DNA sequence: CCAAAAGTGTTGACTGTACACCCATGT
DNA sequence: ACATGGGTGTACAGTCAACACTTTTGG
């Protein structure tokens, strides 16, 4: 069944802000544009919706194509349709953001022409379209959401040490946190549980390994 | 300039969750549908985007048509496009929510067929389409946003008493607040300023009148 | 003088923050 | 033995929550 044709219809794209942590920096996936408009400028991965496809499905398709990922934390960010945002005409973009550990991303296998690359969010060039604004907005949302949910799970492997978790928060928020206070708070929230196992291999005391109590999004009592 | 036609295009609507306070209850504007689908069910005011119109423009147009309001707090809520949400086919809805004092709404003058009416959000019937879910989502957002911004200004007249402000929070959050703690907190945040004027007329001690320090949205240090 | 809402402080509990040293391991 | 990150507790300050009586007015 399709919509009646007696109403104005418009072109809709989906863009995805894929965030990950690499080298203790928060990074976003960008693709250098080959064609006009904004040729040679970096842009978010995205594309037009296919027939019968929802925006979320399209976002997942794009993530698969451009970053080779399929299991990912994905959330709708905002719909951008300000006049003039795309020089080709009125194009609405339903934007999603995604979080995933760096090691689960395989850009090599991606079926795309220009190779997508990760860029440190604190040193971004000017992006194509309104994508600079979109990235800022995504950062704001992620930072905020990490204050009252467990979404950090989506940036970490199943088992991790307290230091890794701490570093994740520090990298996303861009500030240092106190190790002792952090541990007290996180444990009191029951966001994570010790596995009883331990990580050896550094030339230091072995670190206890933890798991998230739930690996789907949960709202917690606000912390930090 | 228009978008190239070689991509699939879809029908886009805008729906608006207009919230206000009436009789110390939080209410939402609904319109009983005359036609199928969902004839006789209540639905949010909304409609298809016109050619060249942005979703926000459309939301403002609908508010003007259905509620006779033009100055209003308006914020994009979410874009709904889940498969099957509209039996007529794949229709995407960019939803906004709006806040305004009851006395600034003039439904009588509205150019519409079915008269829109306000419904207590705590006693809603089943709504058409996915509108029940949309209203819940809007309520969650508004309640949340009142915790860390000054958006309460959009539900109050320019000058108001502390009791009115307190009642606004109580109605939106659906719980009682302590008068003394409320006043201490609100004043310490510098969200509002006394005008020096006073409201007489009740058969009780006159109340001081206040104004919001800013009548556009501001993020405050979190409160309550 | 009575009814109604306005106005006003203190205390105890809890939470957040600052801070420094010893531990277990690999090399 | 030493370098590295892991692991742990206390004390002070600030914030939150609970609580009740007096004031001012209109009728």
Please describe the structure with a list of short key phrases separated by commas or semicolons.
homodimer; alpha+beta; 4 helices; 9 strands; elongated; disordered N terminus; DNA-binding
Radius of gyration of chain A: 19 Å
User: Biggest interface in this structure?
Assistant: A-B, 32 and 33 residues
Structural class of chain A: alpha+beta
Helix content of chain A: 10-25%
Strand content of chain A: 25-35%
Shape of chain A: elongated
Give the terminus-to-terminus CA distance of chain A: 49 Å
Topology pattern of chain A, helix = H, strand = E? EEEEHEEEHHHEE
Quaternary structure: homodimer
Residue stretches of chain A low in confidence (pLDDT < 50, at least 5 long) are 1-5
Mean pLDDT of chain A: 93
Give the beta-strand count of chain A.
9
- Please give the largest β-sheet of chain A: 7 strands, mixed
Helix count of chain A, per DSSP? 4
Describe the protein in words:
The structure is a homodimer of 224-residue chains. Chain A has four helices and nine strands; from the N terminus they run ββββαβββαααββ. Chain A has helices spanning 55-67, 131-148, 162-173, 179-188, and strands spanning 9-22, 25-32, 42-43, 46-48, 73-80, 91-99, 117-120, 192-199, 207-212. In chain A, the strands form two sheets. In chain A, strands 1, 2, 3, 4, 5, 6 and 7 form a seven-stranded mixed beta sheet that branches. In chain A, strand 1 and strand 2 (25-32) form a beta hairpin. Chain A is elongated, with a radius of gyration of 19 Å. The N and C termini of chain A lie far apart (49 Å). At the A-B interface, strand 1, strand 5 and strand 6 of A face strand 1, strand 5 and strand 6 of B. Chain B binds a DNA duplex (27 and 27 nucleotides) through helix 4.
